[in-house]
Amino acid sequence: MALLRDVVDRCRRVIDLGRAVRALLVGVADSSGEVACTLAGVFAGSSRDDVWETVGLFRRSEDEAVALLATLSAAEDAVAATISGLIGFDRGGAPVYDVPTRPPAWTLPTHPLHPGLDEHLFVGHVRGGRLSGYHRHDPTTGTVLSAVLPEDRRGVYAADVDKPVTGGRFVSKARTSLFPATWTKVEIAHAVRTAFANRRPSVPRPGHEVTARWEGHYRGVLIRGYVMSGLDANTAGIDDVTTAWPVHDWREGDDR
Known about the structure:
This is Bacterial EndoU nuclease domain-containing protein. The protein is α+β, with helices and mostly antiparallel strands.
């Protein structure tokens, strides 16, 4: 919007300048014609060459001013046509193509994450009788949240998780961080991709750098994660990401 306003302001200044130049040329043409007529009347019948040279100069000045006015009009038409073509409107201000009555809705690009990371985020992994991952709550799976902490200013919240598994048993995880409840799976996948694309090293504690750990932001939410062991997060790709989680402002620690 700022760029568009700047273009509009510049166009207005060009138009104002053109009007000022046009007014000056009209004045020159009128004045030159008047002076030439006055001189011709005063010195009618005179044989003085200098007088008639002066009259000729004013006549040519009048003609040149008229020619410049024609050139200016042609230039204005060319500039107007160029600007109209660039912004998509004709000289009358009408669009040169059909414009929808309502802007088309923008949809998030759909780029699924690899199956392992997808399962980590949305289902959770069961390892050694314990749950890891699970960063988007889906109550339809029978998963229960407890000890829920309030949302931070970005909508991220945290809770303890109990997830049903086979045999009527539950696996649990204490304090998992959860993406905003309004975010769909598509947006969370997009968020992880965006944060990873703009990642930086993530240091758990001063002096304890972990090359496999990374962090980045999406819509103000800090997202952290790891790539496969033995890889450097700076050179790894999105398919190398094994974990990712949103950081709840209430707890800036490693709440995976």
